[in-house]
Amino acid sequence: MTGRAAEILSSRFKGCSVDIFDIPLCTVLVSSREGLLTDVILASDPSNRALYLEMESILSRSPDRPRPHPVVGEVKKHLLGQGIPDYSCAVLDPALGTEFRRRAWAAARTVPFGETRSYKWLAEQSGSPKAFRAAGAAMCHNRFGLIVPCHRIIASDGTLGGFGGKSRDLAFKRVLLDIEIASIQRELRL
Fold it and tell me: Are 29 and 38 in contact (CB under 8 A)?
């Protein structure tokens, strides 16, 4: 069953530069078209990890496969806790998302590494102060994991909130925040 699903999903990325890699925490898919990021997917669920790894096998057969986007190295650095990444090379495809989501994604990108902000803050920064549910939806539909750091957006009461609402997803959000805090602590000791 996974084989057919991987083939179908692979076709979605036709014409894109796609890099898929596996690290202990998750499997990552980074895709871009003409230098613009179209997806940065972090798959922590075992079945999704298997699907993306099978996609990598399918995509690797292409003789004219483009080189990976420069952000790939920074994503690896981030997830492996090897320092503070520089995502300045990451330009999101402006055709993706609604206008509000693009504003929310841009606002989320301003949250410093290792810090958090609330959904209310995100709504305010996105130009719609009462739209905190829409801000949450923008994070839920974030196509650019880490680049748009939805894991840094939390509930006003300080709980993690959001991130799909599933305990597995909330645990993954906690791990991402912990990686950032540990990276900052290492940088301070240097």
Answer: no
